[in-house]
Design brief:
With about 240 residues, the chain is an alpha/beta fold. It is about 40% helix and about 25% strand. The protein has 8 helices and 11 strands. Strands 2-1-3-4-5 form a 5-stranded parallel beta sheet, sandwiched between helices. A 4-stranded antiparallel beta sheet has the order 6-7-8-9, covered by helices on one side. The radius of gyration is 21 Å and the shape is elongated.
Length: about 240
């Protein structure tokens, strides 16, 4: 998870950094609004969570502008006040969620993960609405109807199979972790459950001829797509 922390107090900044980094999240520290705005501009197409400590409400008008710099950022505001008027002010100022102290580390992490899933869904929906037709290794992916063509022949796939095959053929001859594939097929989710990816691979093996693509299992690592086609061009 990509996390930006905006906090002036060095002790609180260090505490938040430690909480996220011990869970192996990527953290960027921002000491002031200018640094935060600069960091957001560098992550315009990245689902991320911005954690802000609101000691007072005087600077919250700046929250309105943050989504303009990073439309897929989710704003989590931490506050000292428990009253409902403060919480209404935070939400009206542009916060996507808030946590009032005292709160646990588990609650902070859980709320952040929920916001990241939201950001990923927004980005995935935007990307899919922008994409039309892509071609990899002589397979044509029509995102308008989630339709696959092998040459001129239509191949019947479910939307999940379509997304999985698209990703594997876009990145062939590489081993992809099951968790990564799960997040591609189910945007916003990060942990594979049961045999969902395994079942999709089995289905793709039945629908895509092995002379065109082979789906290799790497025990304990993930899956790889190998193809004889050398066409890596995207149209």
């Amino acid at each position: 998870m990509q996390v930006l922390i905006w906090e002036k107090n060095p002790l609180q900044r260090q505490s938040l950094q430690h909480i996220f980094e011990q869970e192996h999240h990527q953290v960027t520290l921002c000491h002031n609004y200018h640094e935060l705005r600069h960091a957001l501009k560098k992550h315009q197409q990245t689902p991320l969570v911005v954690v802000v400590y609101a000691h007072t409400l005087s600077h919250l008008k700046q929250l309105y502008t943050l989504h303009r710099f990073a439309p897929y950022a989710s704003l989590l505001v931490l506050c000292l006040q428990q009253d409902s008027q403060t919480h209404l002010s935070l939400l009206n100022a542009g916060a996507d969620a808030f946590l009032a102290q005292p709160f646990s580390e588990d609650m902070l992490l859980a709320q952040s993960r929920a916001l990241q899933r939201q950001s990923k869904r927004l980005l995935q929906a935007r990307l899919e609405s922008q994409r039309t037709v892509e071609t990899y290794h002589d397979f044509t992916f029509d995102f308008g109807q989630y339709t696959l063509y092998d040459g001129t022949e239509k191949v019947e796939l479910s939307k999940r199979e379509f997304l999985l095959l698209h990703y594997l053929l876009k990145h062939p001859h590489r081993v992809h972790r099951r968790e990564k594939l799960y997040a591609i097929v189910w945007p916003g989710k990060t942990s594979a459950q049961g045999r969902q990816i395994d079942n999709l691979i089995v289905s793709l093996r039945q629908k895509i001829t092995p002379q065109r693509v082979q789906f290799l299992s790497h025990y304990g690592k993930g899956y790889e797509a190998q193809t004889l086609s050398q066409n890596h061009q995207k149209t």
